[in-house]
Amino acid sequence: MLNKLTLMELKEFIYEKTRVNGCDHDHTYTREFLKTRNIDTESVIAWLESKHGYCDCEVMYNVD
Fold this sequence. Notes:
4 helices, globular, about 0% strand, about 60 residues, mainly alpha, about 70% helix
C-alpha cells in the first residue's frame, strides 16, 4: 500500500513522536503523517492493521 521509502519515513516519524510522547495505542501519529502527505488514511490504516500494525508503536515494530 505504501512504497518502501514512504513506509520508512512513516516509521521514522512515529519513532520520533513516540520517543517524546509515548504511544497512546491508536494511530494518532500515523494519521498525522498520512494527512500531511494527502495519502488515503483509512485504506492505509486498514492495510497496516492487516500487517499487525494496530497502533503507532505496532506499525513501527510489526509492519515491513
